[in-house]
Design a protein that fits this description.
The chain is of the alpha/beta class and about 300 residues long. The chain has 2 domains: about 210 residues, Spore Coat Polysaccharide Biosynthesis Protein SpsA, Chain A, CATH 3.90.550; about 80 residues, no CATH class. The chain is built from 10 helices and 11 strands. Strands 1, 2, 3, 4, 5, 6, 8, 9 and 10 form a 9-stranded mixed sheet that branches. Strand 1, helix 1 and strand 2 form a beta-alpha-beta unit. It is globular.
Length: about 300
């Protein structure tokens, strides 16, 4: 079984380099997809440069999207409602996922295709993963904010998802799989496109490292990502984000409904510093820790 790692790219150079180093020994090909449009619909320059990753260059397939998806609602001269902006963002995200199929034409039926955001890194050294006989996998990941060793421990993160080529419906189907393993007697799984009994959740499934960036870069990210409409309504500034980083506090509350913008985007939960043993081996070395010391607490 060969493994094909698929991810999208915006401008996360640090995370892409970390991803390549951690997964290189396990992966046959890295599929990287970048669009000339942000999730908010703004035209952007291409930021990925394959020549910056010489060690992995022969394994990388780089795909560029230079079009908008069909049926975009658009800005409507500044009158678009938040739900309309969100709908357009979802269409752009789905387009980026499904574009990756172009790079998978020579994949065998029993090869494994993994889909992640680039800050979601599956643990392919997991014993459970190596011993699994299932065709569909969901990786339950530790959740980190701002630094490699600051954990947000209130929720598990079901990030990377994988399927054998023979079971793959589409990349957007894979991304939207429900985070639940159903028992064999659940008859409704036979009629569902997102409930499966031939699915396994990998409990030591890796790491989600999010927002390892400056407050300025974070502000740019949230102004252009899928929930950009919510972020704008929150009123958060670069200064607000910097205070959260300095205080090692979350600013986004996953447990609050999206309609309550002020509460949802004004959280003060303290992050937990964790031991190196929970991190990928690559990040445990003194050499790498010294090289990336600004990203460790």
């Amino acid at each position: 079984m060969r493994i094909f790692d698929c991810t999208t790219f915006y401008s996360e150079h640090l995370m892409m380099d970390i991803r390549f180093h951690i997964l290189n020994d396990f992966v046959e090909k890295f599929i990287v997809c970048e669009s000339t449009y942000s999730h908010s619909g703004k035209k952007k320059k291409l930021n990925f440069n394959i020549n910056n990753y010489q060690k992995f260059k022969d394994k990388i397939t780089y795909i560029v999207i230079d079009e908008e998806p069909p049926n975009i609602i658009g800005d409507k001269n500044g009158l678009a409602e938040p739900f309309e902006k969100r709908s357009d963002s979802l269409k752009r995200i789905e387009l980026s996922y499904n574009y990756m199929i172009k790079a998978l034409s020579d994949v065998d039926e029993n090869d494994l295709i993994i889909l992640s955001d680039n800050d979601e890194i599956p643990n392919l050294n997991s014993k459970q993963f190596k011993n699994s006989k299932r065709d569909i996998l969901i990786f339950k990941q530790l959740f980190f904010y701002y630094k490699f060793n600051l954990q947000y421990d209130l929720i598990p993160w079901f990030g990377s998802k994988a399927a054998k080529k023979k079971k793959l419906v589409s990349m957007s189907w894979l991304r939207n799989l429900k985070n639940k393993q159903y028992p064999f007697w659940r008859l409704d799984t036979f009629f569902s496109n997102n409930k499966y009994i031939n699915l396994e959740i990998i409990n030591d499934g890796g790491w989600h490292f999010t927002n390892l960036m400056t407050a300025e870069k974070m502000y740019e990210k949230y102004s252009n990502f899928g929930h950009h409409d919510e972020f704008k309504l929150s009123g958060l500034t670069v200064e607000d984000l910097q205070k959260k980083i300095d205080n090692k506090e979350m600013f986004f509350n996953h447990f609050v409904d999206k309609e309550k913008y002020k509460e949802r985007w004004n959280f003060d939960y303290k992050l937990k510093r964790i031991s190196d043993e929970k991190l990928p081996k690559y990040l445990q070395s003194n050499e790498i820790r010294s090289k990336l010391k600004q990203w460790f607490d």
